Amino acid sequence: MTITMERPPGRSAAPPPPGRRRPLRSRRDNLAGYLFLSPWLLGFFLIIGGPMVASLYLSFTDYSVLGTPEWAGTDNYERMLTDDPRFWASLTVTLTYLLASVPLVQVFALFLASLLNRGIGGLTFYRAVFYVPSLIGGSVAIAILWRFLFEGDGLLNNALGSVGVDTSHSWIGTPDTALGTLVVLNVWQFGAAMIIYLAGLRQIPAELYESASVDGAGRARRYWSITLPLLSPVIFFNVLMNTVGAFQAFNTAYIVSNGTGGPADSTLFYTLYLYQRGFVDFEMGYASALGWALLVLVAAAAAGLFALSRRVVFYGDER
Amino acid sequence: MTTHTFTARRGRKAGPPRATNPRQFLRHLTLIALGVVMFYPLAWMLGASLRDDGAIADPGVWPGDGFTVDGYVEGWRGVSGVAFGRFMLNSFLVAALCVVANLIACSLAAYAFARVDFRLRRLWFALMIGTLMLPHHVILIPQYMMFRELGWIDTYLPFVVPKLLATDAFFVFLLVQFFRAIPRELDDAARLDGCGHLGIFFRVILPLAKPALATTAIFTFIYSWNDFFTPLIYLTDPDLYTVPLALRSFIDTTSSSAFGALFAMSVVSLLPVLGVFIAFQRLLVEGIATTGLRG
């Protein structure tokens, strides 16, 4: 440092003094940084940002694939809110699905993670078994299986019949129960959340439990006062991710209902409705408006969860 | 070689002390019972795929008397005059391209974010994080129009090009986290040996980041293999169909008597994902635990 101080600042072309290497290097870093980042930058502007702006514009137009977009002001949004029962139906289906399955997934995942956490034999095996459904649950193959599981002469009713409960109720073909089968399918995939909970549970120091036991806290008390508060950031994370995911559920509803969202729109997920408007009816302007409405909904849900987290999530004293 | 992001988790077993034996037994019983209930449908599908179509409604798991591999033979013939093997090859091709594209593009971007000090880095990083939870549907329509305009319908470009441009922010984020955990002293040492950023990237960061790269590859493969929506809107030519789309057309063309073939090909379609899971179980589990990826 002293050496740099003694040298006059300035114009010698000779090897730059150590203190001045920083700006030079920084220019090189600038170039390198942007070169490394260039694919992402292109993607950000061409694949994400540009289309986002374009879809905002399209959402204010009337546009079928064949014609050109015609400015329609807020028509699409007005129609959505005041004159489109199927929009409300799809919103109801998605929210019902979300509110039913996200908490259930957490309950199952947390329960299983707690069972597996206390030094149980065969942990790797159990973990694998419960995780497999998460891996394949979104596939078309499993959606096909689900259809056969819950049809009137499907597996469930046959299994029920063999234990003496005779029913030909088509779980998937009846509006009241169709969505329920998809909730079950989502809950069936609790394994990924379970693994995240397991990792979270392992971070909780054993001493806390020991000293609580010494103080006379029972199992339930320890769970309520130690496990849940210390795990709350992980719970929040899982709820957030599962919520964002639930808004975008598509595959199973499509396969189970043959792309219709039936029976009686009871499995008309929001994304399925958007798909129908855009790629079946070719109402690209309206579909874009639905896309932006979804963005607003997801953002609102995330903001709501973050606000809630500030009240209930425990981040420890040191953070 | 694993860096400490991964090893830290296996530090020491925390949690309450071991329970007593009857409790232990009860826990195993609960776990096994639940496991059986969860796996019953899968086992049944496997059984049904090996069964005569007449006995398809049988709730039993074992194929029994009606045992036949006709479903596999019939299903492998494919649909719309295209063999099922072709669909599998298409799916493998798309998945492989996506994996390569993601590995290249996401690691390049992650290196810039984690290791290079350039202007506006914080801004770009914040924007990248912002795209993490962006619902794909908000960009769907213009993207579709753009790709259609470019003549990319019935090509695999709509699958691969977005990945080549690092739009899978989750993997960029995962790699950034991992790269940051690699000690900077290694960069400095490499720099003294005359390495520039490219040298550091290829000789220091990438070799040390193998676990994270493997996680990226595995999850990209699985997502891509299961992807139904992209082929649904971009592929119309049956010759190009990937497996999920082929299964959809199977349903449409399946008469009420050919369930064996439908189930057989459903089982076949699950095998690559299950294979990947069995081969890379540890990496998968760690990948989820550290990043919250869903699988």
UniProtKB/TrEMBL annotation, chain A:
<dbReference type="InterPro" id="IPR035906">
    <property type="entry name" value="MetI-like_sf"/>
</dbReference>
<keyword id="KW-0813">Transport</keyword>
<feature type="transmembrane region" description="Helical">
    <location>
        <begin position="87"/>
        <end position="116"/>
    </location>
</feature>
<feature type="transmembrane region" description="Helical">
    <location>
        <begin position="31"/>
        <end position="58"/>
    </location>
</feature>
<feature type="transmembrane region" description="Helical">
    <location>
        <begin position="128"/>
        <end position="149"/>
    </location>
</feature>
<feature type="transmembrane region" description="Helical">
    <location>
        <begin position="222"/>
        <end position="241"/>
    </location>
</feature>
<keyword id="KW-1133">Transmembrane helix</keyword>
<feature type="transmembrane region" description="Helical">
    <location>
        <begin position="178"/>
        <end position="201"/>
    </location>
</feature>
<dbReference type="Pfam" id="PF00528">
    <property type="entry name" value="BPD_transp_1"/>
</dbReference>
<keyword id="KW-0812">Transmembrane</keyword>
<dbReference type="GO" id="GO:0055085">
    <property type="term" value="P:transmembrane transport"/>
</dbReference>
<dbReference type="InterPro" id="IPR000515">
    <property type="entry name" value="MetI-like"/>
</dbReference>
<comment type="similarity">
    <text>Belongs to the binding-protein-dependent transport system permease family.</text>
</comment>
<feature type="region of interest" description="Disordered">
    <location>
        <begin position="1"/>
        <end position="25"/>
    </location>
</feature>
<feature type="domain" description="ABC transmembrane type-1">
    <location>
        <begin position="91"/>
        <end position="307"/>
    </location>
</feature>
<protein>
    <submittedName>
        <fullName>Sugar ABC transporter permease</fullName>
    </submittedName>
</protein>
<keyword id="KW-1003">Cell membrane</keyword>
<feature type="transmembrane region" description="Helical">
    <location>
        <begin position="289"/>
        <end position="309"/>
    </location>
</feature>
<dbReference type="InterPro" id="IPR051393">
    <property type="entry name" value="ABC_transporter_permease"/>
</dbReference>
<dbReference type="GO" id="GO:0005886">
    <property type="term" value="C:plasma membrane"/>
</dbReference>
<keyword id="KW-0472">Membrane</keyword>
From TrEMBL, chain B:
<keyword id="KW-0813">Transport</keyword>
<dbReference type="InterPro" id="IPR000515">
    <property type="entry name" value="MetI-like"/>
</dbReference>
<keyword id="KW-0472">Membrane</keyword>
<feature type="transmembrane region" description="Helical">
    <location>
        <begin position="156"/>
        <end position="179"/>
    </location>
</feature>
<feature type="domain" description="ABC transmembrane type-1">
    <location>
        <begin position="88"/>
        <end position="280"/>
    </location>
</feature>
<feature type="transmembrane region" description="Helical">
    <location>
        <begin position="25"/>
        <end position="43"/>
    </location>
</feature>
<keyword id="KW-1133">Transmembrane helix</keyword>
<dbReference type="GO" id="GO:0055085">
    <property type="term" value="P:transmembrane transport"/>
</dbReference>
<feature type="transmembrane region" description="Helical">
    <location>
        <begin position="87"/>
        <end position="111"/>
    </location>
</feature>
<dbReference type="GO" id="GO:0005886">
    <property type="term" value="C:plasma membrane"/>
</dbReference>
<dbReference type="Pfam" id="PF00528">
    <property type="entry name" value="BPD_transp_1"/>
</dbReference>
<keyword id="KW-0812">Transmembrane</keyword>
<feature type="region of interest" description="Disordered">
    <location>
        <begin position="1"/>
        <end position="21"/>
    </location>
</feature>
<comment type="similarity">
    <text>Belongs to the binding-protein-dependent transport system permease family.</text>
</comment>
<feature type="transmembrane region" description="Helical">
    <location>
        <begin position="258"/>
        <end position="280"/>
    </location>
</feature>
<dbReference type="InterPro" id="IPR035906">
    <property type="entry name" value="MetI-like_sf"/>
</dbReference>
<feature type="transmembrane region" description="Helical">
    <location>
        <begin position="200"/>
        <end position="225"/>
    </location>
</feature>
<feature type="transmembrane region" description="Helical">
    <location>
        <begin position="123"/>
        <end position="144"/>
    </location>
</feature>
<keyword id="KW-1003">Cell membrane</keyword>
<protein>
    <submittedName>
        <fullName>Carbohydrate ABC transporter permease</fullName>
    </submittedName>
</protein>
